[in-house]
Design a protein that fits this description.
The complex is a heterodimer of chains A (288) and B (286). Chain A has eleven helices and 13 strands. With 288 residues, chain A is of the alpha/beta class. In chain A, the strands form three sheets. Chain A has a nine-stranded mixed beta sheet with strand order 3-8-9-2-10-1-11-12-13, with helices on both faces. A two-stranded antiparallel sheet of chain A has the order 4-7. Chain A has a two-stranded antiparallel ribbon with strand order 5-6. The longest helix of chain A is centred in the middle third of the chain and has 19 residues. Chain B has a nine-stranded mixed beta sheet with strand order 3-6-7-2-8-1-9-10-11, sandwiched between helices. Chain B folds into two domains: 200 residues, P-loop containing nucleotide triphosphate hydrolases (Rossmann fold), CATH 3.40.50.300; 64 residues, Alpha-Beta Plaits (2-Layer Sandwich), CATH 3.30.70.20. Classes of the chains: A alpha/beta (288), B alpha/beta (286). At the A-B interface, helix 4, helix 6, helix 7 and helix 9 of A face helix 3, helix 5, helix 6 and helix 8 of B.
Chain lengths: 288, 286
C-alpha cells in the first residue's frame, strides 16, 4: 500500500527539511520526494535533482482595466470587497496586491472594461534524484493559492509513484497551519511533527496538534535540538503525553547538520555514524 | 505612523526574536511604539511580555446562505464562484456552500436572480490587544485553527494598531501573508541565517521587495554557523547588512524560555540600540 509521510511543524526552522532530506537519502531508500514548501522550496539545493519536466501553474487571476473603455462610473469599486479599487489621479485603479481575483468587477462593469490576466509565472518541476524521484513547486514570489500548488505537487507524486512502482511518498511541508499545510496533510497516511525546545515552538506545536485532531492519521512528534533547553523539552514531553501523542525521537543539536547542508548532503550521508543520523534512522523505523 | 516589518522567506530565522527585542529597545527610549504580530498562523510575540489583555474582537468574513425555498438550482452562483465554494446539483436538488473555500467576495449574491442568497458572518480568527504599564501595546492577530487564510486577520491586526511607530512581526514565506504585511510597511528588515537554505530564501525575499520598491536591509542571525555565501551575496548586490547576531547557545537558551535577550546580554542590547538609531534615521520615525 502507498504510504505518504508528511513532515510538518507549526514553527519554521525547526528542521523539517534537514530531517526530510535525511529520510530521503538513507541507504537503499527509494522514494518520491515532494517539496511542498512552495513559497520557499529548499530541498532541491541538497538533492540537486535532474529536472525532466517543468509545468506551468496558474496561481490565479488579477483584474485589469482597459482605459479606452472605462467610463469612470465607479460601479466596480462599489462591489469590490477587497478594497482593491480606488480612485487616483482622475481614474480608477486596481491594486494588484489587494485584488483577490474573484472576477466580480469584470461581471458588473457596464462598459465591459475589465478583464482578467492570468498569473502564469509559477512552476512545478519533476525529476530524478539519487534516491528516487522528486517533485517541487515554485510559487512566483507574491502569488497566491499556495495550497492549490501543493495539491498539484502531491497529485504528481502519486502519479509518479504508481508509474515507477515506488511505495513511499515523502512530503516536506511549509510552516504554519494555513492552506498550504492543510493541503500537505490531507490524505497523508503518516505525519511527523518536528518541534524544538522553545516556548514559541511549543505554542506552535499545540496549534498544530489541534489541527491534526481533525485528521485520522498516524502521528508522532520529534523534538529536534532537544539539548538546547532540557527544561522546555520536558514541558513538550508533558504536553504530548497529555494529548496521547507519541514522542518518536529526540535529536541533539549538532553543528554537523549545517556542515552537511553547506556541502549539499544530508546528515546521514555526511556522517552516518553520528548520533543525529542514528536517531533519524530510528525515527523513520518508528513512524513509517 | 511608521511601520517596520521584520520578515524572512525562511521560517525560524529569528523574526520574533528581532521584533520583540527591537520593540523593547524603542520602548525603553520612551518611543510611542506598538508591536503587531502578523504571523496569525502561529503568533508568539505577546508571550515574551507580561502584559494584560485589554481588548479584542473577532475577525469575520461573509459567507453565503442559500434559501432552498427560493433556489431554482439554476447554477449561476456556482458559475460565478471562482473559489469552487458552491456546489449545485439540479437533478438531486442539492445547493451547498463549502464555507471554508469561500473568500467572501459576494459574487454569488450578485449572481442570484431569485433573491435566494443572503450572507452570514463566519469567524476567521481574532485580534487581541495587550497593554503594559506605560502606553506600550501589542496587537496580535490569531487565526482560528482549521481556517485556510490568515490574510484578513493580519490586515485587521495592522489596522487596529495605533502608535507613532509599529514593529510588524511578519509571517514566513514569500506568498500572500508575507506580501500583505510588507505592503503595509514603510521599511523592511529581512532576517536570515548563513546557510544554503537561508541564502536561497533570502534571494526570493530580495527579489519581491525590489519588485515592490520597498526599502530594506538584512540581519544575519546565528552568524558563525554555515558559510560566507550570504555575506558575499549582500556585498555583490550592495545590500546593507544591518547587524550580525552570533550563534550562541546562551542566546538560544534565553529566547527558548521566553526571555528578552537585550535584558540579559549587554553586547546584544548595544547592537539593537544601534539598529534602532539606523531605523529612526532611515524612516524619520519618532
Amino acid at each position: 500500500m502507498l504510504k505518504e509521510l508528511a513532515v510538518i511543524s507549526g514553527k519554521g526552522g525547526t528542521g523539517k527539511s534537514s530531517i526530510t532530506a535525511a529520510f530521503a537519502t538513507m541507504v537503499n531508500q527509494n522514494v518520491v520526494l515532494a517539496d511542498c514548501d512552495v513559497d520557499a522550496a529548499n530541498l532541491h539545493i541538497i538533492m540537486e535533482p535532474e529536472i525532466e519536466l517543468s509545468e506551468v501553474y496558474i496561481a490565479g487571476e488579477k483584474a485589469v482595466i482597459d482605459y479606452d473603455k472605462c467610463s469612470s462610473c465607479g460601479v466596480c469599486q462599489g462591489y469590490c470587497r477587497f478594497n482593491a479599487i480606488s480612485f487616483f489621479e482622475g481614474r480608477y485603479i486596481i491594486d494588484e496586491i489587494s485584488c483577490d481575483g474573484c472576477k466580480l468587477c469584470e461581471k458588473v462593469c457596464p462598459s465591459h472594461a475589465i478583464s482578467m490576466e492570468k498569473s502564469d509565472k509559477s512552476r512545478m518541476h519533476s525529476g530524478t534524484f539519487r534516491n528516487g524521484k522528486m517533485v517541487y513547486g515554485r510559487l512566483e514570489p507574491g502569488e497566491e493559492n499556495s495550497g492549490k500548488l501543493v495539491a498539484m505537487v502531491r497529485s504528481k507524486c502519486r502519479e509518479i509513484a504508481k508509474k515507477e512502482g515506488i511505495d513511499t511518498i515523502l512530503i516536506d511541508s511549509p510552516p504554519g497551519i494555513g492552506c498550504a499545510v492543510i493541503s500537505s496533510i490531507s490524505g497523508a497516511t503518516n505525519v511527523l511533527v518536528v518541534t524544538e525546545p522553545s516556548l514559541s515552538a511549543m505554542s506552535d506545536l499545540d496549534r498544530t496538534l489541534q489541527l491534526l485532531e481533525n485528521y485520522n492519521i498516524k502521528k508522532g512528534v520529534v523534538i529536534n535540538k532537544y539539548d538546547l533547553s532540557q527544561s522546555v523539552a520536558d514541558k513538550i514531553i508533558n504536553l504530548c503525553e497529555s494529548k496521547g501523542i507519541e514522542i518518536v525521537g529526540m535529536i541533539p543539536f549538532d553543528r554537523e547538520v549545517v556542515d552537511a547542508m553547506v556541502n549539499r548532503k544530508s546528515i546521514v550521508e555526511w556522517n552516518p555514524a553520528s548520533i543525529v543520523s542514528k536517531e533519524i534512522i530510528s525515527i523513520w523505523n518508528k513512524i513509517i | 505612523m511608521v511601520k517596520i516589518a521584520v520578515a524572512s522567506g525562511k521560517g525560524g530565522t529569528g523574526k520574533t526574536f528581532v521584533s520583540t527585542n527591537l520593540y523593547q529597545t524603542f520602548l525603553s527610549r520612551g518611543v510611542d511604539i506598538a508591536l503587531t504580530d502578523c504571523d496569525a498562523e502561529e503568533p508568539n510575540s505577546a508571550a515574551f511580555f507580561k502584559y494584560e489583555e485589554t481588548g479584542g474582537e473577532p475577525v469575520t468574513q461573509k459567507v453565503p446562505v442559500i434559501d432552498l425555498s427560493k433556489c431554482t438550482y439554476c447554477g449561476k452562483c456556482q458559475d460565478w464562484c471562482v473559489y469552487n465554494a458552491i456546489v449545485i446539483l439540479k437533478e438531486r436538488k442539492i445547493a451547498k456552500v463549502l464555507d471554508e473555500m469561500c473568500h467572501g467576495c459576494g459574487a454569488c449574491t450578485v449572481a442570484c436572480e431569485y433573491g435566494a442568497i443572503t450572507e452570514k458572518d463566519m469567524v476567521l480568527g481574532e485580534v487581541t490587544k495587550y497593554s503594559g504599564k506605560d502606553k506600550s501595546s501589542i496587537v496580535e492577530g490569531r487565526l482560528k485553527v482549521g481556517v485556510y487564510t490568515p490574510v484578513p486577520v493580519l490586515k485587521r491586526a495592522i489596522l487596529s494598531t495605533t502608535a507613532n511607530v509599529a514593529v510588524l512581526d511578519s509571517p514566513p514565506g514569500t506568498s500572500c501573508p508575507f506580501i500583505h504585511t510588507v505592503n503595509a510597511s514603510d521599511y523592511v528588515i529581512l532576517v536570515t541565517e548563513p546557510t544554503p537554505f537561508g541564502l536561497n530564501d533570502l534571494k526570493l525575499s530580495v527579489e519581491i521587495l525590489n519588485q515592490m520598491g520597498k526599502p530594506f536591509s538584512v540581519i544575519i542571525n546565528r552568524a558563525g554557523l554555515g558559510n560566507r555565501d550570504v555575506h558575499n551575496f549582500l556585498e555583490r548586490e550592495k545590500i546593507e547588512l544591518l547587524m550580525e547576531i552570533p550563534f550562541d547557545k546562551e542566546i538560544a537558551s534565553i529566547y527558548s524560555k521566553g526571555g528578552l535577550v537585550i535584558s540579559e546580554r549587554e553586547d546584544i542590547a548595544d547592537k539593537f540600540s544601534y539598529i534602532a538609531d539606523v531605523i529612526i534615521d532611515k524612516t524619520r520615525a519618532c
